[in-house]
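[Discussion] Sanity-checking designs against the backbone

I'm trying to build intuition for which residues belong where. Below is a structure token string of 149 positions. I'd appreciate it if someone posts a full sequence so I can compare it with mine line by line.
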């Protein structure tokens, strides 16, 4: 397990320090806000969906390392996917963190498996899933603020 823990920490630190797709998107794009009052994480997800495909996705905001790393990896994971694939990935990631329906061996997770260790820390689960809940709101074109509470 310690090798896995090391990998988990390295990947999360890297994405926290150099978040990918960390900027606003201009033009006619969807935008959703997410807030995790328990930790103070706040982020805005920008989503450009055309012909049912995620053409571009980006985020801005501030929060703890896990929330930021998760948002960064979420953008990498869903860019170029269809809307249905992005929603399916939300369910796989959420299932990994909130129950035992999804095993860390599930190949659909890819790099997202580094968050498997977070499920032992319920407070952190909210940090890790915030970006994904916010993404889902943007996929559904909802403008309300998503809160984990
Ligand atoms: Zn947090």
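Best answer:
Here's mine. Compare freely.
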């Amino acid at each position: 397990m310690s090798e896995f823990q090391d990998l988990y920490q390295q990947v999360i630190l890297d994405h926290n320090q150099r978040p990918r797709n960390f900027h606003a998107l201009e033009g006619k794009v969807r935008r959703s806000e997410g807030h995790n009052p328990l930790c103070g994480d706040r982020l805005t997800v920008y989503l450009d969906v055309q012909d049912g495909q995620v053409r571009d996705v980006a985020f801005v905001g501030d929060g703890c390392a896990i929330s930021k790393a998760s948002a960064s990896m979420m953008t990498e994971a869903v860019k170029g996917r269809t809307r249905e694939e992005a929603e399916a990935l939300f369910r796989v990631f959420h299932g990994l963190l909130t129950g035992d329906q999804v095993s860390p061996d599930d190949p659909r997770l890819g790099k997202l498996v580094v968050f498997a260790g977070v499920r032992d820390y319920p407070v952190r689960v909210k940090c890790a899933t915030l970006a994904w809940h916010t993404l889902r709101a943007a996929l559904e074109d909802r403008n309300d603020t998503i809160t984990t509470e």
